[in-house]
Amino acid sequence: MEFKVGSHAQQVIDLNKRIKRLTSHLKNYKKDHVTKLSLFKLVAKKKRFLKYLKNNNFEQYKYLVDKSNLKEVGL
Length: 75
Fold this sequence. Notes:
about 75% helix; ribonucleoprotein; structural constituent of ribosome; uS15_NS1_RNA-bd_sf
């Protein structure tokens, strides 16, 4: 299943890639506090998008969680 470029599902996929990249960066540079702050913001944004998908388009949410091995979002 492919998602449109600006859709919430596609944004979650893109955010997940950025989060993985920043996490690997922080493993090497533990004192990079600016990156750590931006990582926290991205995680919160991803959580908001997943919550929105869960409430408004459950099929896409379930597919995304199963396919990308993401944790399910609680309400």
